[in-house]
Every structure is written in C-alpha cells, then in structure tokens.
Amino acid sequence: MKLLTCITLLTCVITWAQEGHFSGKVVNEGSPVSFATIYIESLSKGTTADENGDFMLKNIPAGKHQVKVSSIGYKSLEEQVIIIANGTIEETLELELQSHLNEVIIVDTQTGLTRRTPYNISSIDMQGIVSKGNPSGMMGSLREVPGVYGAEFGQGIVKPFIRGLGFSRIVTIYQGNKLENHQWGADHGLGINDLGVKKVDVIKGPASVLYGSGALGGVLLTHDDEFYKESNKISGDIGTTFNSISNGIRTYGSIGKMLTNGIFFAADLAYENHADYKNGNNRIIGNSRFNTKTLRIHTGIEGEHFQNKLSFSYNDQKLGIILDEEMQESKSLATTRNDREMQLPFQKVEDYLLSYNQNTQHKDLKTSLHLSHHSNIRKEIEQDYDLVDLGLQQNHTFLNARISLNGGKIDHSFGTQGSFVKTRNIKDSQEFLIPDADVFESGLYYLASLELNSWYFQGALRYDFRKVTADAGSTELIEDEFILPGNPDNRKLTRTFNGLTGSIGATKNFDQKNQLKLNFSTGFRAPDLAELFSNGPHPGTSRFEKGNDGFGREQSVQADINYTYRNKWFEGVFSAFGSKVNNYIYFTSTTETIPEENLEVWSYLQTNAFLYGAEFNLKNSWFDSQRLVTKFSGAFVRAEDLKSNRNLSFIPPDNFNLELGYFGLKDKSLYAFTKLRMISDQNRAGLNEETTAGYTLLNLGLSKKFYFENHHLETGITAYNALNENYVDHMSILRAFNVSSPGRNIMLNLKYNF
C-alpha cells in the first residue's frame, strides 16, 4: 500500500513538472480587448479574458501548442506558443479590427464568389440557440435579412422572396446541389431544414451568370457546420426544442471526428413533430400540423492542398394542407389541442440527396468539382389515406466544375454546369397536373477579376442551353385525357431556351472604413413545367391550372449600388436597386369556372415588369466592453406591370426590424434581447388582390451558456409575437381566405456541446 502511494505521488510530481502556465493580455492598438476567448483546440481547453484583457491558462502540457484568440468585432488570431515545464509564459496578443471590406473571403468555392465580388451579399448564422428549431425552418431566421421575405402556407412551408421575386426565381444551393424540387408551386416548401447548417449566405439580385436558370431573383447558399474538422476528438452536440404555439418538439444531434490522417466522419439526425398552431385569437388553425425526420452523413479528406467530401441526406416530411374554408367554423379541420395524427389532406415528401464536393489548391491554380443526385418524391393525399391524388417523382443529376488561374493582375475562372431533371407522375395518382418531362440544361461561364489599387473589378459572361421535352403518352395520362397544348399526335412537345447573360461591377475601398459596390447584371429564368404545360385540377386547392407553352424565358436587367461604412463600434450598409424583367410570368384567377368540378380556372400570364427598392442595416456596439448592441434594418420594394400600368401582385410590404441586445455577466455568457418587427400596410394591391393591414410583432429572448472543463451547455427561451397579435400577412398563400398567422410562441431550447 505504501509502495502504491509513493508511485502515485511520484506520478503527480512528474506530471506537474511537465506542465506550465500561459498568461498575458489581449489588446487592440494598445487598448485592452475585454472578454476575448483564448482556446487551445488540441487540448479542448480555454479561458476568457477579463474586462482589462488579462487572462491565465494553467496546467498546460509542456511543448508547442496552437492558441486561437477571438472576440466579437475582431479578426481571429492563431499563434503558436511554447510552454516550459514548471514555468509561466507571458505574451501580449494583438487583435485587429474585423473588416470584410478588403478581405478575400470565399463565399462559394464552386463559383469563385468572394466577399469582394460586387454583389450584394448578406449572411445569417443558423447556430444561435434562441432561434434553433424555429417551426418556420430556415426562413424563420432568414426573414431578418433586409430584402428577404417569406411567403407562408402554414408554419411548415415558407417560400423565400428576395427583393420582391420568389418561387422558382430563387435558387437554393444545399450540399452544393442546386435544388429543383421546390419549383412545383406556392404550396411546396424548400424540402430542407437547418440541421447541420452553420450559416446561409443570401445573394441578392440576378446571379444567373454563376448559377444558371432560376437565379433571377437571388440565391440562398447554405454552408454546413463542419465543427468536426477542428478537433481530433469525438465532438458534437445534442439538443431539443419546444414550441408552445404548436406543442412542437424537435430533438436533434450531431457527432463527428477528424482522424490524424485528415479523414473525417460525421452525422446529423433530427426528428420534429408539431400539432396545429394557434393564431392571435387562440383559435386552432386546423390541419397545420406537420412532422419531419432528417438524417445526414458525411465523410471525406481534409488536406492542405486537397479536400473532398461525400455527403448523403434523407428528409421525410408530412405536411398538413390548410383548406380554403378553414376560417369557417363548420368546415374547420381543427381537432384537439395536441392531436398530431395526420389528417386529410396532407403532403408526404421524401428527399434523397447524394453529393460529392472536391477542391484543390496549387500555386496559381484552383479547381472545384461537384457531382450530385437528388431524388424527390412528392405525394398529395386528399380523398383517402391509401390513394395518391397528385404524385410526382423528380430525379435530378447535377454537375458543377470550375478552374481558376492566377494570371498576374487578372484572375481567370472558367466554369461549367450541367443538369438533367427527370419528372414522372406517380402511376396510381388520381389526378395529373403536369405531363411527364425531361429537362436538360448546360451552361458555360467565364469570370475575370482585376485588382487595381483600391479598385476591384469583376465581370462575367455565360451561355446556357435548356431543352424541355414534355410527354403525355403514358397510359395514365391518356386515360385521364390529359392534353398538351396543340394536342400533338405523338403526345410530345419540345421547347428549347438559350441565350447569354452577364455581369460587370466594381468595388471601391476608400479606406478601411468605407466601401462602395456598383454592379450591372442580367439574369434569366426559363419557365418551369407548371408554367408551360400544366392542364388539370390541383388537389388541396380549388383551382384548375393552365400553363402556356408559348412563354419565352424571363430576362432581367438590374443596376445595384451598395455602400458600407464600418469602424470599431458601428456598421452601416445601404443598398438600392432597379430591375426590369421582360416576359415576367405571373399566376392569376380568371372569370372562368368548371361547375361540374367546382373549380376556378387559374392561368399563367406574361408581362413586362419593373421593380425597384432599397435596404439598410445599421448596427452599433456601445461602451468599451461592447456589451450593448443595437440593430435597425428595413427594406421596401415597388413593382409595376409595365403593360397594364398597375402594381404587380404578391409583393412584400415595407418592413423594418429594431433590435436591442445585451451581453451580461463577466464572461458575457448571458444574452438578452428584444426585437420589434414592423410591417407596413400594403396598399399597392395588384391584379385580383386586396390591400392588407400592417402589424407589429414583439419578440423577446434570453440565453445562457454554462461552461464546463471541456464542454458547455446552452439554454434559451424566446417569445415570438409576445403580445399575441392576430394578423394576416400580405404574403400568406392563404391570405385571400383570411387564414391568420401564428400567435404567441414560447420557444424553449436546450443544447449540450461536447
């Protein structure tokens, strides 16, 4: 026993003798940086500086260690320190003010897009604990970006709008794949959620020159949370969210590890279940319930000059369809408060996405390669649980490749994209809205960049070819008497679209604080299948929908100006744009009805449109500790039908956001905020549209982080629409039927990071 005690004591002495301490001060231009984080990733060990910038890390193994220092508003610093056994190393760590004004920060490796590109780009973090698990999904957070709005069809389906343009005019890039599954109508969602997503970049304005058809209005570019690449230990998180508005529960988790040879493995899993939500009058909105199951798996290699990643995602959704007659008490589908069983009608949507992304870096050469295959199976079930009223399966294979050359003063990028979409009606469907179809699309683009003193110039040119073949020759479509325009004998129609798009712009950095961006660009969108060939009843609605195969492609010309001012305490961003869209396609009801089926005929029409507007985003940090933060943002859009000299319909109202946030406690681990979202009256009604009253929503939130030796726990409580305002949003798909939006929602969050 004495021998064991001696060995133990000797081991402790040796261990202590092989450890040292690291202390110092974090400063910026001689002034202390309060509450900076000092972290040694390899040891999963860190500390927080005090209000004077002083810190101390004790009991660090002797040897070389990479230390990372970070603080809000400053650039992160990585520095190597050598710890001496049984000694203390003291250093002063100098942080630089954070400024993206002149930094080459990669936004998208597939296209070569950077922060210096003269596009209007906004980012939003998807990891904030107070918004994690929002029942409106990613759009619940993205609506806070000036110029971005959401068109709702209940809580589970929210379609993005950017500067007044939405639906299939917005491209979503997820896992590097260009999603095509959300183009089938207003009542179809994005089909993805924020599981495993770190942030979303919003590219405002035409980006067709880099992303092809559909990017006429802008792009949502998702970025995975690759936390596992920063640690050689198994790490991850597990959390749960409760939403009182729908008694909704979401449970999720992520886990991953980086091996010493650069190979990594990771997985994400989530399950979400919601009952019907309540409006501001505490009335249950029947059949607004939904549930989702999501699985994501990743593996790959992270090297100095070579990186690749193979990912698979599966998403299963069941979404209740709110009926037009829901606000009529006798026809409401509302049941008991916590009823989660799916009832008729509802959508069942399954997504399978396999993607491969690869990047290489050499001295003057960079390459990017993306390959993916996405299968989307969508069923609308209305009459009977065993019958499919409307069913479509879409298989999409997508290729994106780019090579970039540093040619001295001018950087050159050459890219190509290819897409093949195969859409088939599910054979046992009761109704057929669109024919079977194959879509082939290919595009080539060239991007050139020139840095000249304080100016940064960039221009791009692209050519695209798209071929659409509609086929109504299947037995089911013949028996349904589905007719293509012109009723061709072979029951097939082929349409082709091709043309050039381009952009040219400049970024001027006057100094480290002032930046101006100017951009002139064109964009295009080829009509989707519904706009060209739809000819049938749409289950879940009271419409008979008709397309027009004679449509030309939409073509826009937009001018954009963006000014940014940034210093240590304040950041202000102002943007203005004007865009003309030729052959703008819109959807409207006609005076025609089909009495025997009790359906109103809706048709797609084309016109020329002009849209213009502005956005601003102001942020200020107060006091030396930067504990108090205020934000004020807003946007407005005006849209005119140039042929009829009237307003376009379905345009977002003017909207403003005011936020006050405070970091409490010595280590800033407590955060409290209040937000006001102010929506103006929409008095500029378009065709067959009524004006809508504005409203104001108050949101409140509180979050707290609890730190342990190597892990931490995040908790949060958020009150959305805290005053329980009852309102109908102008962009609600069900606005014409006065179906009101969600009332007060108390959201509780718990997340453990290990």
UniProtKB/TrEMBL annotation:
The keyword Transmembrane applies. Pfam families: CarbopepD_reg_2, Plug, TonB_dep_Rec_b-barrel. It is found in: Cell outer membrane. Residues 115-219 form the TonB-dependent receptor plug domain. Its main location: membrane. It is a multi-pass membrane protein. Keywords: Cell outer membrane, Membrane, Receptor, Signal, TonB box, Transmembrane, Transmembrane beta strand, Transport. Residues 258-721 form the TonB-dependent receptor-like beta-barrel domain. InterPro entries: Beta-barrel_TonB, Beta-barrel_TonB_sf, CarboxyPept-like_regulatory, Plug_dom, Plug_dom_sf, TonB-dep_rcpt-like. The keyword Transmembrane applies. Belongs to the TonB-dependent receptor family. This is TonB-dependent receptor. It comes from Autumnicola lenta.
